Each structure stands twice: as structure tokens, then as C-alpha cells.
Amino acid sequence: DIVMALHDDSNGITWEMADEAGVSSGAWGRFIQTGILTEQEEDEEEYVIKDEEAVEEALEEHVAELNSDGWTFKDKVMGFVGLNLILFYIFPPLRDTVGETINIAFSPLVSIAPFYIVILLLGLGIVSTILHYQIKDNEKIGYLREKVQQYKEESDGLNVNDDSDDKASDNPFDQMDEAQQRMFQIQKIVILEQTRPLGWILPFTIPVFMWIFWKANSGLLTASEQVIVFPFIGQAHVAGAVIGPFAAWILWYFISSVIFTQLFRKLTNIQINPSK
Fold first, then answer.
1. DSSP letters of 224-236?
2. Dihedral angle computed from the Cα positions of residues 37, 38, 40 and 45, in that order, rounded to the nearest 10 degrees
3. Which of 116, 119, 138, 189 has a beta carbon 3.0–4.6 Å from 68's, enabling a disulfide?
4. Per the confidence metrics, is the pTM higher than 0.85?
5. What pLDDT, in 10s, does the model give residues 114-151?
6. CA distance 59 to 15
7. What is the distance between the terminal CA atoms of the chain, rounded to a whole angstrom?
């Protein structure tokens, strides 16, 4: 953008002009190396853009790639709420307060179904799956991954001169070729797009965890409700550890969640994690 602006304002661009405008020596060298800038016939110290139309098209494409939604303001708010709820879970008084509050809504479920069935139903994560499906843009992520691979191939195909001015820059990012820079920028966007659903899922799942923990340790369950039967493991107390530090209810919750997720993907043919 800076070079295009300098080109529009003058008949030729010199390194001094580009340097004053904030163009790094590495970037300047790459513009010349890749043929974006060519020497003026009248003055070898001045350069012009070889193909303005092609450069403008490339800039538009690059801007479109980088103008991803990323984490919107709403995403950040939900993520902030989710992180604070994790802190609530760490502190027992806050965790128990949230658990008791949510019990007002969930207690009817326990009255009509065994506690382990309620955990199974909550472990299905229907709300989380719907949020994941609605928020995550697999098509955009697939497109961005293709661009990452394209820029990687372009970068591998460039012959970068080790004695170039790129080493004059103290910024490692400036020492990369343009294709590498774009590749890393797009990889950052891919990570943001992939983690967007997490910001919405946490505020729904963490309170559920708080309630199950509170209920399992409340002493309000009957003797039969305090037992969960696992395949190969046998009976286990709902609040007791079964694998390392993990309580029985956590293991039961995740078993339910994994099975449902696999079934949901098969039934709806949704590819939650598209192949690279």
C-alpha cells in the first residue's frame, strides 16, 4: 500500500523515499527481486511499478484474505465470560454458589431421571454442537488453508539471497519473504476462526460442570444415584476418582460427549475438522 501511494504521488520511487515512508529494507529488496519494481530507464536509482493492475489485484486479494471476522466484539465478550467462569470453578465458594443457583433449573431433571442419565443428557452437548456448527466457518477455514499451502509452495520456490539486505533488519518478520509473511498472517486468522466457537461454548458448559460437581458432592443424592457403572471398570462412586484425579462424573460426561459427537457427525455428515 505504501509503495502504491508513493508511486501515485511521483513518477519514480527511490529507496530514500521508501525508507522515509516506513518500508523495510527487506521488503524493498523483495519488491525488486520479484519484479514488482523495475528500474527507470532514465534514472537507475528510481523505480516504477511494472504492472499496476496486477499489483492492485494482488492487494485486493490480500486485503480480502486478511479481512476475516476473527473474534468479533461479541465473541470477545463471551470468551471473557467463559474465562471468568473458569476462575469461578477454581474457587469453591463461587463454584458452589453457581451450582446451587443452577440447581433451581436442573432439579426437575433429577426428580424424573437418575442422576447418571441427567449427566449423560448434559454430556450430549447439543447446545455446544449447534453453536460449533453455526459459528465455525469450515468453508472459509478450508479456503485459508489452501492459501497457506499456496504461499508455502511459493516461499519454497523462491531463491532468497543470504547476502541480501534482509539481514539488516532486526525484525525476524522482515527477514521472511513475502510469501512466508502472508502464510503466517493467514495461519493466525485460521487459529482465530477455529477457536471462535470456544468463546461461546465455555459460558454454557462451565456452569453445567459447576452444577454436576456441586450435586455429586452435595450429599443430596440417594445411595443408588451415587453409583455409576462403567464398562470394564465396574461400579464407581459418582464423586470418586476412577482414572487418576478424574472423578466418575467427569469420565461419564466425556464418554457421553464423545459418543454423541461421533454419531452427530455421521448422521449429519458434518466435517467439524476439515482435512488439511
1. GGGEEEETTTEEE
2. 70
3. 189
4. no
5. 998 999 888 887 888 888 888 887 777 877 788 778 77
6. 21
7. 31
